[in-house]
Specification:
The structure is a homodimer.
Chain A (H helix, E strand, L loop, with lengths): L6 H8 L3 H8 L7 H14 L5 H8 L4 E6 L5 H17 L2 E6 L4 H13 L4 E4 L12 H5 L4 E4 L10 E4 L1 H14 L5 E5 L5 H16 L9 E3 L4 H12 L7 E4 L2 H13 L9 E3 L16 E3 L2 H16 L10 E4 L2 E3 L11
Parallel strand pairs in A: 1-2, 1-3, 3-4, 4-5, 5-11, 6-7, 6-8, 8-9
Antiparallel strand pairs in A: 10-12
Chain A binds a DNA duplex through helix 2 and helix 4.
Chain lengths: 342, 342
DNA sequence: CTGAAAGCGCTTACAG
DNA sequence: CTGAAAGCGCTTACAG
């Protein structure tokens, strides 16, 4: 009970050296198969559990991957984390997770903690306002692999895991145009971030393809929050010439906007069509159901951890594949369909 | 760059022993204040970072708290985790998080991993179908503190952190009754779990207080998922005598049900009033807005980690305070208001 | 207030 | 295929 079993206990009971026990437990090829069986049986019998701290200390590795996200409690991020946890657990890696709460200041503090925790690798989705790369430099200097996902730091030379945000923005906008909508407002987040700037590019591309002039007044930068959705609705209500469609870079914000528009007697899609982004469950439980871009959050989390572990194990070099792009897709529901357009 | 600074480097540069450096860095009272200042300055200068693995190995502690939740990507749980992360980070503890995906089998596997990771303490919210305590016994045997939160294991003698679910159920039901609704169906989850059985008790208590007979046919056990919400709506549609209200133990399920009811030409609250549970953001972005019970998820996460750390530090004994109950409250919105009842 | 020394439990280069 | 020995970087009981 009180006493912990070590490889020395196994060794002495089996009349072997601790070195052999250690090798057998780690499935070292030089050890006789029969000896391995013996040792593993004894380990099982005694309830041995390996001491990670001794092992990590000796090996100078931590088997730990750090994760920094803007926030833990958004649909996308909690789903990404769920995917990460699954893979990490299966591979015997630990995750240290922290949230920047959308502030570069907190993100810097988080990177310091991660650095001091000696993570073997770091996975980051950057905050809204991050515009310096400096806090990531210590990792590169120490050759600790750094991978960005979702919200990447552009021109960083670090590997990135993303979806094709431009394509997502393009498809969302094109769909609206094909439904007959021409005056489309794009509600987005801080354009410093690739996810938003790329979707904007897609939006512009679609407009230009259909020869609809782009107006910068039609791009509204918001916090993409629940509150932002309400504000957008009120702003639209006050507009002399109303848009006929909205492309919103977040489902939750889109849905909140739709609810508020309804309160203001503007109905969706009849008065204004709406397309969201993410395929958050919320998009299915409102009426009208929200057309959106499916975001493979779980897959992204899995891919991020898998790539990191492969790199750490030397299975493949991350630098070679600088960007991994996951598939996203348009899901058409009622909120964007042309009905009885007035 | 390559070389890591240790206390030996600091010691030799300062002509001191590693023992003194170690003590100074840990703010040991026996060390001269001036020496401490000197040592800390040198540590800073050299970019020293403590090696947790050596320290943990020596101290036989891990500074790690294990967390097992049913799933990471639900509003409640991701918010609980966000609260946990905040406190753990501030206190220098690490979290190892894993998800049981509502299966006892996976939960058992998770407890094994946690045990082998030698967590200093374990925080658990149990799966839907967990009915054995056996997989937690190894922790008690080794005197590793175990705290349950949200979904607790009843009669376990372990400390619990919960809300007053019976009170929540009571208030939700009482509110509906006071609005004039009498035929109230309760949609809930697996009644093995305290969160659901207690809410049911509250529901029954409110009915009995108003002398409305309880009918077990009015309690529907579901997965409380998005899909479950749809099924409930269809089942109601098929009912010869329809209920006038629904008390649903999850906002997401409630909202999905409302959306489907609407498709079936049953409107909320006019035809059927609805009260949810959790105060998920989704409750605010639909129309009508959902009346619900606010669940202090972030606070629960913070409290769980705080209690665990205090216990580990010996600040107070957990066994003394067997149950910590956090405040929840009814939030009245449109979905439950008596309008033009037909 | 400071130091010498042992030991936490592993892994691995070296030797045979 | 197996072993002896050193060492990873700390902490702490003991001594002074």
């Amino acid at each position: 009970m009180g006493k912990e079993i070590t490889i020395y206990d196994i060794a002495s009971q089996l009349q072997l050296s601790p070195a052999t026990v250690s090798r057998a437990l780690n499935n070292h090829p030089a050890i006789n198969e029969k000896t391995k069986v013996l040792i593993n049986a004894k380990a099982e019998e005694l309830g041995y559990r390996s001491n990670k701290f001794a092992s990590n200390l000796r090996k100078q590795k931590t088997n730990t991957i750090g994760v920094i996200v803007p926030r833990l409690n958004s649909y996308i991020m909690s789903t990404v984390i769920a995917g990460m946890e699954k893979v990490a657990n299966d591979e015997g890696f630990n995750l240290i997770i922290s949230q920047s709460l959308e502030s570069q200041r907190k993100e810097i503090a988080n990177t310091k903690t991660m650095f001091n925790s000696r993570v073997d690798g770091l996975l980051v989705s950057v905050a809204f306002d991050t515009d310096s790369f400096e806090h990531f430099q210590p990792f590169l200097k120490k050759k600790i692999p750094l991978i960005f996902f979702d919200r990447i730091f552009e021109n960083s030379d670090c590997p990135n895991i993303v979806i094709d945000n431009a394509k997502g923005g393009y498809e969302a906008t094109k769909h609206l145009i094909e439904q007959g909508f021409k005056n489309i407002i794009h509600i987005t987040g801080n354009l410093k971030r690739n996810v938003y700037s790329d979707r904007l590019k897609g939006y512009q591309q679609a407009l230009s393809e259909f020869e609809i002039p782009f107006k910068s007044d039609n791009v509204w930068v918001t916090a993409l929050s629940l509150e932002a959705g309400k504000e957008v609705a009120h702003r639209i209500k006050a507009l002399p010439i109303k848009p006929d469609a909205l492309f919103v870079s977040s489902d939750l914000c889109a849905v909140s906007c739709i609810a508020t528009l309804k309160e203001l007697n503007i109905t969706v899609p009849n008065d204004i069509a709406v397309v969201g982004f993410n395929n958050d469950p919320v998009s299915q439980v409102i009426s009208p159901k929200l057309t959106t871009i499916h975001y493979p959050a779980k897959e992204m989390g899995e891919m991020a951890v898998k790539s990191m572990i492969n790199h750490l194990k030397g299975n493949f070099n991350l630098d070679a594949t600088n960007t991994i792009t996951l598939r996203s897709e348009l899901i058409v529901r009622e909120s964007s369909l042309f009905l009885t357009h007035s």
